[in-house]
Amino acid sequence: QLQLVESGGGLVQPGGSLRLSCAASGFTLEHYGIGWFRQAAGKAREGLSCISASGSGTNYADSVKGRFTISRDNAKTTVYLQMDNLKPEDTGVYSCAVIIHGDTYDHCSVSMTYGYWGQGTQVTVPS
Which of 82, 96, 103, 104 lies 20 to 30 Å from 27, alpha-carbon distance? Predict the structure, then answer.
């Protein structure tokens, strides 16, 4: 059974850092692009970043560019999101998902079709 499980969220002060993990099971992670998304209370889900199957292609939303870094370790079947210089507006539930349509070997986009969403992990940055 294909499954993604996020971890690493928590409470962090402005300017701090967190590293989120997205652990995959039930499928061969290296064949798929993966994306990270965020949903703040009362707001629509926002695509933050994605990484291609090969790891050579990444994309970031303007809101996190220069502060967040996505990476993958196929041997550990895990995709990471390193988040630095966190701001109160980064507060939300962070989820990862698999790109389920399209050729994602060396490129990706948060606007592609995603599935197999994880349950999410809460990140809180107080103002």
Answer: 82
Q: Which of 23, 100, 113, 110 is nearest to 68 (CA)?
A: 110
Q: Are 24 and 118 in contact (CB under 8 A)?
A: no
Question: Could you give the C-alpha distances from 60 to 8, 42, 48, 49, 103, in angstroms and in order?
Answer: 20, 22, 6, 4, 18
Q: What are phi and psi of 76, to 5 degrees?
A: -95, 5
And the tokens for 35? 């994306």
Query: DSSP E strands: which ranges in 8-125?
Result: 10-11, 18-25, 34-39, 46-51, 58-60, 68-73, 78-83, 92-99, 114-115, 121-124
Tell me 119's DSSP state: -
| CB distance 70 to 51 below 8 Å | yes
